[in-house]
């Protein structure tokens, strides 16, 4: 990406600020958190993110009138790259800042923007995403969670179950896709509601994963309530708005994600040198292909963002999700092949419990490569499975005939 003098100065500012502030009080926070490790030091990472907010480093791309900096796409890319290069702790407000916030800006009312955007900028309220259900994962249009408007009380009453809800235990609010039109099917009759999580009628149950941690949760709504005005768009607009949110999810932050991917790839290459696995021509070829794939991923992400610098992203964003999810899953497999038989043996230490910090009854811990392999199996499923992304690309980008459906 070409950088002018303004962008170069911005990069120097970001790099200098992070270097200065990731010392002293927050020096120990470097490298904490991330996929498969969201249990690590959550309170410390929350304090760090509020420190970021106080200095004006959250929600950079948001318009200034909504608390952002109005940063250009190039500057947002720079910040995310430098953040990852500095090994700053994994963000805790990602879902509010990068998913819900842009959605409210694009589709919400001024009252909703005034109510919900400032606490996201300040990291005073955390969000989770209520999309998937036991029978509506990749097939999101099959959502069955119901919401009924109680006009007399000025509230929506919500009943149903969501699953794979990332960070629900920490969240204050959830944006949930609910069926608000009785008898409706598929994409019709869905609405996009904003639901407080800390109320009677909301039951959160952690799902323990292969890694021994619990980023994901089940959420049960039993006559949970939210205000009549806590709906984004009109009743029935839920599908359109939910798809726009997914597009925002695949935006600028993916460039910072790729810096983390590069660090992982460099670590696998170094591991291959140390173990001698790099002398295997087949493994060496796979390492080379992984490097090439990462370069292509970056160029594609830049091209995609250049095309959606204004307005909600289109279906082309599915390409980025498909590419990075497949690449990262393959990197986990490559890491295990480089480890060889030793990758099958855990180190015998006790693991972490879902409550972030206490020891669990799990009799082992995982090294970084084992955790990468296990957690990256989910990359091709969450945030839209590979199969669904291929359908979207085929039908909505390439204009191919729709897949036969029952």
TrEMBL record:
Domain Acyl-CoA dehydrogenase/oxidase C-terminal: residue ranges: 236-398
Cofactor(s) needed: FAD
Sorted UniProt keywords: FAD, Flavoprotein, Oxidoreductase
Keyword Flavoprotein: yes
Boundaries of every Acyl-CoA dehydrogenase/oxidase N-terminal domain copy: 5-123
Gene3D superfamilies in the cross-refs: Acyl-CoA dehydrogenase/oxidase, N-terminal domain (1.10.540.10), Butyryl-CoA Dehydrogenase, subunit A, domain 2 (2.40.110.10), Butyryl-CoA Dehydrogenase, subunit A, domain 3 (1.20.140.10)
Flavoprotein listed as a keyword: yes
InterPro entries: Acyl-CoA_Oxase/DH_mid-dom (IPR006091), Acyl-CoA_Oxase/DH_mid-dom_sf (IPR046373), AcylCo_DH-like_C (IPR036250), AcylCo_DH/oxidase_C (IPR009075), AcylCoA_DH/ox_N (IPR013786), AcylCoA_DH/ox_N_sf (IPR037069), AcylCoA_DH/oxidase_NM_dom_sf (IPR009100), Mycobact_Acyl-CoA_DH (IPR052161)
Pfam families, A to Z: Acyl-CoA_dh_1, Acyl-CoA_dh_M, Acyl-CoA_dh_N
Domain of life: Bacteria
Transmembrane regions listed in the UniProt entry: none
Stretches assigned to the Acyl-CoA oxidase/dehydrogenase middle domain: 128-223
Family: Belongs to the acyl-CoA dehydrogenase family.
Name of protein: Acyl-CoA dehydrogenase family protein
Organism: Actinomadura fulvescens
